Amino acid sequence: MAGKNFSEKHRILYYEGDQNAHVTLPMLVNMMVLASEDQSELLGVGPKKMSTTGLGWVVTQYQIKIKKMPKINEEVTISTEAINHNAYFCQRDFWISDKEGNELVHATSIFVMMDLQKRKMQKLIPEILEPYESEEVKQIIRLPKIIEPEDGEKLSHQYSVRYLDIDQNRHVNNSRYFEWMINTLDDEVLTNNFPSEVNVRYHVEVQPGAMINSKAIRSGSQGDFRTNHKIFVDDTLCTEANIEWQSYLE
Amino acid sequence: MAGKNFSEKHRILYYEGDQNAHVTLPMLVNMMVLASEDQSELLGVGPKKMSTTGLGWVVTQYQIKIKKMPKINEEVTISTEAINHNAYFCQRDFWISDKEGNELVHATSIFVMMDLQKRKMQKLIPEILEPYESEEVKQIIRLPKIIEPEDGEKLSHQYSVRYLDIDQNRHVNNSRYFEWMINTLDDEVLTNNFPSEVNVRYHVEVQPGAMINSKAIRSGSQGDFRTNHKIFVDDTLCTEANIEWQSYLE
Predict the structure, then answer these.
(1) Would residue A43 be called left, alpha or beta, if left means φ above 0 and alpha means ψ between -120 and 50 degrees?
(2) Do residues A75 and A97 make contact, with C-beta atoms less than 8 angstroms apart?
(3) Which ranges of the sequence are coiled-coil (chains A, B) (predicted)?
(4) Which residue of A112, B138, B192, B227 has the fewest CB atoms within a 10 Å radius of its CB?
(5) What is the distance of C-alpha B9 from the center of its chain?
(6) DSSP codes, A49-117
(7) How many secondary structure helices (H) and strands (E) does chain A include?
(8) Is B168–A72 a contact, with Cβ atoms under 8 angstroms apart?
């Protein structure tokens, strides 16, 4: 038995879209997190309740499969469910579907609870966990590891964390990492292709004020390529990802 | 007689807010433009119709007065109206109010029509203008000029235009300029203060791929200060602004 399902409708606004009029990858992630925040609020375990525990939810991995990128002005339904958990890890899934009920996006994510003062992982606490009714299991899903490309075109870009990258939890909004990653690629690549599968692992949080070195390797052929991404602050690997790309024309 | 009024409700989403849980200035501008785009669509002169004319609306100036920054999860009403126009310029106003009807934000803007191929200003064409029912006048409002500070603390920051800064019209989304401007200021300033009045003039469009030099001068005393902003691409002054700041505590 899985957990409680939560759904909400969302109209993609023009400022959530790119020059192709498709929703951007960072905004897609924002929309999914919005649904989980709204579910938490509904179940009485929203930010207010969380703040009394000194803990915060932190995502460690996302695997996002995208069949079709929703378009500006499209009304989509975002659904989410805390599938199961063990003592430390919780699997939460997300689905985005169009008006006809076709699934456009499916994501699986792993969340942990962090002591916000010590910035250390904590055991999940029943007080916060129970309302989601997720199943207790011994072993949660293992999402794929990040694959290192053997060779390819090397790209990189430097960024400084901006004031507006920081969210209410006083950490860099997870969606910003996606912008730092994909912006290393050529405009031509981003104009003609969309990420059909994204596997991202967060290792270390990027702190306000940090300088980011976003490295990418593009491998494969013109019509069939993938990218590997690494986000560094100095010598620390903070985040890494594999992205499979697909042409909009296919 | 002024033009047709259009209103819509909008809930401020967490990803439209900053670490203080207030809506960000760029998102505030996005929300206003959203209302004007939705009105245009409703009146049959949305992007599709516009694209048949080869023209596009371009904002040349905003004067935004903010009494109170809306907060995350707050439901606001955004209203807009094409007030009046002469042969070349159109005055469009915006209001944002809270659930009780209190006005939080009032903005006046000047829009022109641009030939998208030649990137040159054009006379307003009746075909697009008439549905808004804005009044024809000889002289439209003159918004305040940008004031140069006599002295103050000099700040600057460099940016490169990112793929996701470009919107559907293939130009840099207007709201990005606000991020480039305010991000020159210290986090401490941005955490404790909000822009109570913003006067921004757009002179030259920033092009995709450009390198931006955002300069600012902060003048006045600790409790009563203002900033002057200039956005350059090489030696070209693209945008300038005056911002008055007010403490959240007042």
Answers:
(1) alpha
(2) no
(3) none
(4) B138
(5) 19
(6) HHHTTTEEEEEEEEEEEESS--BTT-EEEEEEEEEEE-SS-EEEEEEEE-TT--EEEEEEEEEEEEETT
(7) 5, 12
(8) yes
Please answer yes or no on whether A168 and B19 come within 8 Å at the CB atom. yes
- Predicted TM-score (pTM) of the model is 0.95
Nearest chain A residue to B73 by CA: give it: A38
Please indicate whether, in this complex, the C-beta atoms of B168 and A21 are within 8 angstroms of each other. yes
CB–CB contact A18 B167 (8 Å): yes
Residue pair A148/A228 in contact (Cβ under 8 Å)? The answer is: yes
With contacts defined as CB-CB under 8 Å, which chain B residues touch A179?
A: 162, 164
Do residue B163 and residue A187 have CB atoms under 8 angstroms apart?
A: yes
Set of chain A residues whose Cβ sits within 8 Å of the Cβ of B19 = 166-168, 170
ipTM of the complex, rounded to two decimals: 0.95
Q: What is the pLDDT of residue B168?
A: 84
Nearest-neighbour CA in chain A from B22: distance (Å): 9
Q: Is residue A163 less than 8 Å (CB to CB) from chain B?
A: yes
Interface check for A167 against chain B (CB to CB < 8 A): the answer is yes
What's the pLDDT at B1?
Answer: 58
Q: What is the mean pLDDT of each run of 10 residues along chain B (250 residues)?
A: 91 96 97 97 94 94 98 98 97 98 98 91 95 96 95 96 90 94 95 97 93 97 92 97 93
Q: What is the pLDDT of residue A249?
A: 85
In chain B, which residues fall in CATH 3.10.129.10?
Answer: 5-136, 153-247
B chain contacts of residue A208, beta-carbon cutoff 8 Å: 187
Could you read off the pLDDT of A18-40 as tens digits, one per residue?
A: 999 999 999 999 999 999 999 99
- CB < 8 Å to B57, chain A: none
How far is the C-alpha of B74 from the C-alpha of A19, rounded, in Å?
A: 29
B5-136: CATH superfamily: Hotdog Thioesterase (3.10.129.10)
* A1 contact B CB<8A: no
- What whole-number distance in Å separates Cα of residue B15 and Cα of residue B28? 12
Which helix (H) or strand (E) segment is B182 a member of? helix B174-182
Q: Find out if CATH 3.40.30.10 is the number for domain A153-247.
A: no
